[in-house]
């Protein structure tokens, strides 16, 4: 590996052995972070900290293929690193060339484009246009459903508040804890002993349990019948009230 090319790219090391896993990982991470910038910083850190050899190889292989640095199975690591360094050098001098013709207008445009790419790169919420009336109304409805304060004038902040609430309060661990607490509060019917039998107890426990089950089903049926009777009485009262009203109207 040429020490001159390494120095040209600002690398502190003078020698790199691509066949060594540690050196190969270092030069890929260095070139990506300093010059190529096709991934975010988290990817570089995860590559250097990856302890699993299989996952490390998968990350590198996916990066080299999608980046166009690996053309086939027969490519050696040295060839792939040479391609990466060539791309980094080309980008370095390309940036220097463009900086010579950089005007105030071009600088502002480039800065806005860069900020837009950074906003859209990491968080998917950045791709949502919260300024539209339809989206603002949908966000307000979401806040109401979750019990989040929806009075903030900026819909984007309200949306982020909803996401934060969901992340903290509706994650699997929180839901599991809530379900466990509700399960403890729930009163359970013990057909074996606590529910009254209603008849003379039999010495056979199975017969007693069957009797209790039959009584529960009968009570449930009575409850349904009572609801039907109440509905019928209400309908009858409404009919009588309408008839009385019609009689009064006729007398007038």
Task: Give a quick summary of the entry.
With 252 residues, this protein is mainly alpha-helical. The protein has helices at residues 3-8, 21-36, 41-49, 53-66, 77-100, 104-122, 133-146, 155-169, 172-185, 205-251.
Main beta-sheet annotation: none
Please count the helical segments. 10
- Runs in which pLDDT lies below 50 for 5 or more consecutive residues are none
Structural class: mainly alpha
Form type: elongated
What this model shows, in words?
The chain is mainly α and 252 residues long. The protein has three domains: 99 residues, no CATH class; 60 residues, no CATH class; 56 residues. The chain contains ten helices and no strands. The longest helix is centred in the C-terminal third of the chain and has 47 residues. The termini are far apart. The model has no long low-confidence stretch (mean pLDDT 80).
Please give the structural blueprint.
Layout: H1 3-8, H2 21-36, H3 41-49, H4 53-66, H5 77-100, H6 104-122, H7 133-146, H8 155-169, H9 172-185, H10 205-251
Helix pairs in contact: 2-3, 2-5, 7-8
Characteristics of this structure?
3 domains; mainly alpha; 252 residues
